[in-house]
Amino acid sequence: PPGESIPMDIVLNPMLMPRFQSRHVLSIYSNDIASPVLEVVVYADPEPEFSLDPETVDFGVVERQAGRREVVWIRQIMDRTEPLDIKSAEVLPPQSGIDAAVERVPEEEWERPGWPEFRIALDIRPTAPVGPISAYLSFVPNIQRMPSMHVPLTGEIASFYRLHGHLERAARVPAGGVAEGIYEITANAPIDVVDIDTTAEGVAVVVRRGESSHELFLDLHADADAQPGLLNSVLSVTLQSGEKQAVETLPLRVGIVSPERAAEDVRILEP
């Protein structure tokens, strides 16, 4: 009745929480005309089985050819029947150009005897794509409630040019159409594409000069007889500015659709 109340129990099971922190929104539906839906934010911090140091990796600005290494330390901090073990580790997405290698720390170096420690070395390859780093370290511990754990990776790969990707995940190009500026390349000096190659069938990538010699655009052209479907390939581009040269391997993921399903912002080439 109006003015009355009733308690509501919220039960949390930490064994079903796959992270160190949990945040959920509880939606309560009622026949209250003024507030038919009441949202309550529920926070929980399950006691961690291990520590992460650091919890987020920032590489800072890294020169592409120089590369860089950062290390994530993982230490068991909870008494367990089965000692902590790290089954595998990888950096996602694979195109990030960062390798992950797990090493079990020798027992004599453990901070606490009987409590295992691991270190995961993160190495930026000299061929890593230029631009902001937007990736994460994913590793698999032998913990029932935690199928995997993610560590965000940030920073920027710098070179004599800058690369801006404009190919959206849900990009669609009609057969016989073109998606302009899927990648934009800029530099402080005149820059050219000396070689471009892709194994994708039914499409071609064409270099277009911008308003100055310091700017290039890559346009994706779909053949008129290109078969509808998902195109998931890579694009290799060799760039040169003066005596400097670099090879970029770029993802090429786009949906080929029939012309009648073309989006309004995609230009159709005239026959």
Annotate the secondary structure layout:
Blueprint: E1 22-29, E2 37-44, E3 50-53, E4 57-63, E5 68-76, E6 86-92, E7 98-104, E8 117-124, E9 131-132, E10 135-141, E11 149-158, E12 161-165, E13 172-174, E14 177-187, E15 192-198, E16 203-209, E17 215-222, E18 229-241, E19 244-257, E20 267-268
Parallel strand pairs: 4-11, 13-19
Antiparallel strand pairs: 1-2, 3-5, 5-8, 6-10, 7-8, 9-11, 10-11, 12-14, 14-17, 14-20, 15-18, 16-17, 18-19
> What is the number of helices?
0
- Secondary structural class: mainly beta
The SSE string, one letter per element, is: EEEEEEEEEEEEEEEEEEEE
Q: Share of helix among residues?
A: under 10%
What gap, in angstroms, lies between the N and C termini? Answer: 72 Å
Using the CA coordinates, give the radius of gyration: 25 Å
Beta-strand segment tally = 20
Low-confidence stretches: 267-271
Main sheet attributes: strand count, strand direction, barrel closure = 5 strands, mixed
Instruction: Please state roughly what percent of the residues sit in beta strands, choosing from under 5%, 5-15%, 15-25%, 25-35%, 35-45% or over 45%.
Output: over 45%
Mean pLDDT score = 89
Which outline best applies?
A: extended
Structure, described:
With 271 residues, the chain is mostly beta strands. Helices cover 0% and strands 54% of the residues. It has no helices and 20 strands. The chain has strands spanning 22-29, 37-44, 50-53, 57-63, 68-76, 86-92, 98-104, 117-124, 131-132, 135-141, 149-158, 161-165, 172-174, 177-187, 192-198, 203-209, 215-222, 229-241, 244-257, 267-268. Strands 4, 6, 9, 10 and 11 form a five-stranded mixed beta sheet that branches. Strands 12, 14, 16, 17 and 20 form a five-stranded antiparallel beta sheet that branches. Strand 10 (135-141) and strand 11 (149-158) form a beta hairpin. The protein is extended and about 65 Å long.
